[in-house]
Amino acid sequence: MVTKGPIKRLNAVLIVSMLGMGISTYIPIAYAEGADIQENQPMNTLSKLEIEGVKLDKDFSVGVNEYSATVENDVQTINLHVESGKPDSWIMINGESAASGATIALSLKTGKNSFLISVMDSSNPINTYTLTVIRKQNVNNLLQNIKLSTGQLSPAFSSAVTEYTVKVTNDTSAISVLPSAVEKTSTIEVNGALVKEDGVLVKIPTGKSDIIINVTAENGIKKIYTIVVERPETTALNTDFSILNGRTNSFNSATQMQDPVNVQKTSKATLSSLTVSEGTWDSTFSSSEYTYHVAVSSNTKTIIINPTASYSSSRILIEGSNSKTIQLEDDNKTIISIVVSNSDDDRKTYVLVFDRNE
């Protein structure tokens, strides 16, 4: 590479020599400093870089090589317009050839998208510009539908309605719940279990219990849908006596009354008491009620939960752990499950919903 110093000295010597020889002529300054000007000329630059309908973080300048822009989540493609500063230069975007002056459509993924725009010719170093486009994450956390294996939602499902009631018969011990989100980028949990293609099977205790559906948008914002399930305590006994040949069979009737088939076995998987270190309950605790809302202050970070089993043989897990101290989530609702089990087929789930006061 030719340096500036020797060229300047050579030009100076040439001029002095010509003057000493008595040659009087006009020597343009541009000629004397020609090498400097050629060296300072920008090579392989862009003359234009813009995104159709999107503002860059700074105005384009030939000597600035880094730019960024942010678009909403619904923008899946941008139209990029680039022009080279020299007609004999060509442009590559992420290794793909792009015609100078053309508008190039570029696809965007959610999050950070980097585009390297290189300008080159046959005799000068490559000059690369960096364009970073941030596509915002999806904010939609709405459900599109909720399907149940049994029972009917009341009121009828609507994405905007988050509270429902379902009444089932006493012989309904479990319900399969299959919610679907409006956006595929959302994740859904039912009572803490991630929803798969066949839904989540939820065991239903007698009395009232809640099914909590937690929908998390791609950007992390959550929405909670609640289904209150009402299952009667017992099935009404058939009080009709058996009639055989037109006469009352009192013996069989008495036997049925003493040993009814439909009387439900008493569960040992219950709590006799449940307390928390702080907060105001929406109702008094009862062994047969399984969902409670507890209001806590906005600066509450942790809660200690103290459950007591009705039977010493029962096992208690809080969010799948033996720890009684739980961390509240950053948003306004934290859902905690307390599972009491006495045997494989005797299991109850109590749910505490901690609501932060705004």
State the helical fraction.
10-25%
* Shape estimate: elongated
String of helices and strands: HHHEEEEEEEEEEEEEEEEEEHEEEEEEEE
Computed Rg: 38 Å
The main pleated sheet reads as:
5 strands, mixed
Q: Structural class from helices and strands? A: mainly beta
Distance between the termini: 68 Å
Which band does the percent of strand residues land in? 35-45%
How many helices in DSSP terms? 4
Characterise the protein shown here.
The chain has 358 residues and is mainly β. It has four helices and 26 strands. The protein has helices spanning 4-20, 29-32, 34-40, 250-258; strands at 46-51, 66-71, 77-84, 90-93, 96-98, 103-107, 111-120, 127-135, 143-148, 163-167, 174-181, 187-190, 193-194, 200-203, 207-216, 222-231, 243-244, 247-248, 271-276, 280-281, 291-296, 302-309, 315-318, 325-327, 333-343, 346-356. Strands 2-8-7-4-5 form a five-stranded mixed sheet, with no helix packed on it. Strands 10-16-15-12-13 form a five-stranded mixed sheet, with no helix packed on it. The radius of gyration is 38 Å and the shape is elongated. Mean pLDDT is 81; it is low at 1-41 and 236-264.
